[in-house]
């Protein structure tokens, strides 16, 4: 029986796909991930997480806080679009789009029924291999799974997350209770 070779997608392949507002396209280790556009509850939590992180990151001059869609290229076969991310302080070349963005200090994925499996398994493990801290926000349970690059298990955070960005030398507090209160349905 002949062997059927599975296509391995590159970051360039994903970027060459036509824009489609109904779907998000990513590749992890060459595997193409296609997920539908997020729904309103998901986006409300993304917005609340972004605002909370933005305030902390700005107050402590940690870097740049962004939200999807932003292409993060971790290697030639991995292009992801985390829901929220924090980049280290960037120069004008990055802001003008002249050079690729650096590896994020932090990525946040808000779990939904259509993304949870990929976020928990493929993407989270790939972020860890890249040395990036990853927070998985579970809307239904109102908690954050905090995965550091070397963690075998997550820290479960309900009221706040204590985050120590690399090189800062101190922990920052990101309050979660206001996020849950703001986005309660």
Automatic annotation (TrEMBL):
Protein name: Putative restriction endonuclease domain-containing protein
Lineage: Bacteria, Pseudomonadati, Gemmatimonadota, Gemmatimonadia, Gemmatimonadales
Gene3D superfamilies listed in its UniProt record: tt1808, chain A (3.90.1570.10)
Record SUPFAM superfamilies: Restriction endonuclease-like
Domain Putative restriction endonuclease, chain residue ranges per copy: 12-164
Matching InterPro entries: Nuclease_put_TT1808 (IPR012296), Restrct_endonuc-II-like (IPR011335), Uma2 (IPR008538)
Coiled-coil residue windows: none
Taxonomy, superkingdom: Bacteria
């Amino acid at each position: 029986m002949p062997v059927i070779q599975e296509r391995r997608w590159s970051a360039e392949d994903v970027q060459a796909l036509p824009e489609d507002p109904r779907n998000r396209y990513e590749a992890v280790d060459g595997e193409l991930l296609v997920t539908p556009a997020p729904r309103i509850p998901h986006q409300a939590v993304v917005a609340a997480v972004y605002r909370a992180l933005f305030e902390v990151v700005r107050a402590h001059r940690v870097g740049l806080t962004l939200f999807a869609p932003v292409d993060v290229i971790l290697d030639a076969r991995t292009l992801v679009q985390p829901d929220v991310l924090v980049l280290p302080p960037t120069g004008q070349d990055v802001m003008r789009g002249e050079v690729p963005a650096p590896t994020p200090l932090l990525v946040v994925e808000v779990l939904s029924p259509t993304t949870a499996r990929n976020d928990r398994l493929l993407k989270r493990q790939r972020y860890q291999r890249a040395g990036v801290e990853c927070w998985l926000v579970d809307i239904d349970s109102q908690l954050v799974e905090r995965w550091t690059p070397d963690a075998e298990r997550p820290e479960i955070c309900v009221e706040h997350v204590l985050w120590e960005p690399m090189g800062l030398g101190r922990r920052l507090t990101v309050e979660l209770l206001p996020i849950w209160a703001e986005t309660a349905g």
